[in-house]
């Protein structure tokens, strides 16, 4: 240890390259000790974890010093009637927001008492959109024409990079001399961003060679990955999922202590009109809360919460109550790859019967998407109910505020 600490101090050893000279567990320990000394802090808890470091440092993290822990709670049982998820589930939620799990749990009670959430995936496709520079608008148009005329070649090159991924289609967009090629893939059980980027790079190289356009970037932001964007809301990205439930007046009163009419009015004035007035892309109350908590528990990429949050919550009046639905245009989930192989995340996926590759391929990722959509519906119901009953502040005072330590 001392020898490596000395080398780090005199800069003859790079901090991030410790794994090249030490086994992973020791490299992480030396790095943590160095950071503790440099910053005068103690990282006792950051240094306590059970995950397999060998795997994490190869696939998931660079310059690792340890792990932070986020409490995981469950909400459920949640009855789901999807095409891939059909049964009762306990939804794992990793969060530090007191009252969130209680709220989703309450929504799950209502959904299950109502007979379950109906869920359907409307479309499924992960996108990557390289940007090319051309010499003129005429050249730009010729690149678009080449792409349209060469779909088979584009498909063959894209699919040569992956045994699971399939090219669904392409869309071109031109702005002056810039040409954007939005490639859409069926990535089966993988969320698919690495897969789509590798395939997209191969396609871009061919397009540049064949058309004389210059590849500027394999991501031209028309994808659009990890940024709020209307294109994802309109066309969908990842999985587009809808979930709905018929809530009777009685359930609104017994579970949410309010009425169907009040839930409906809160939704209209808050989620629809309020969001429109704010210029929002998301017309919901707290979709991001449920998506973030399930994503963190289940090893998904948390940056994709920004896309998942563009959910629309609707309330239709029906006989003896309301039909409440959530529409999530861009939900990016996978059950292989990324963070899904880490032990705690894998256990949370196993809770849902959705860890690893499904049979057929793609069925596990779709199952996960359906369950998360039903969870989002549960969160929407409970928060709309709490706002309608005027209980939000009280709930967070009671559940979300322990004694605040003074430092
Ligand atoms: C807190 C509750 C649920 C109380 O709700 P309640 O109806 O007063 O409590 P209850 O004791 O009658 O229990 C009803 C059900 O809630 C669940 N429940 C109740 N307590 C627990 C608990 N400790 N742990 C787990 N589950 C719990 C449980 O399902 C229970 O049914 P039971 O099983 O007893 O038949 C309710 O007031 C509520 O949901 N409030 C809303 C809180 C909320 O949704 N917070 C989310 C975060 S808010 C935010 O981050 C976004 C925001 C608000 O800024 C977005 C925006 O702008 O709108
Ligand atoms: N590169 C980028 O631009 C970005 C990367 N990311 C990161 O990408 C990672 C996720 O990428 P992703 O491509 O999902 O994962 P991985 O890069 O981990 O690749 C998953 C691979 O698993 C293989 N596989 C095995 N079984 C299956 C199955 N049943 N269904 C589908 N694939 C299977 C596939 O191999 P094969 O292809 O050979 O069939 C697939 O490519 C995350 O860590 C995320 O944070 C996020 C955003 C952008």
UniProtKB/TrEMBL annotation:
Catalytic activity: (R)-mevalonate + 2 NADP(+) + CoA = (3S)-3-hydroxy-3-methylglutaryl-CoA + 2 NADPH + 2 H(+)
Keywords, alphabetical: NADP, Oxidoreductase
GO molecular function, one term: hydroxymethylglutaryl-CoA reductase (NADPH) activity
Enzyme kind, highest EC tier: oxidoreductase
EC number: 1.1.1.34
NCBIfam families associated with the record: HMG_CoA_R_NADP
Sequence similarity: Belongs to the HMG-CoA reductase family.
Name of protein: 3-hydroxy-3-methylglutaryl coenzyme A reductase
Species annotation: Methanosphaerula palustris (strain ATCC BAA-1556 / DSM 19958 / E1-9c)
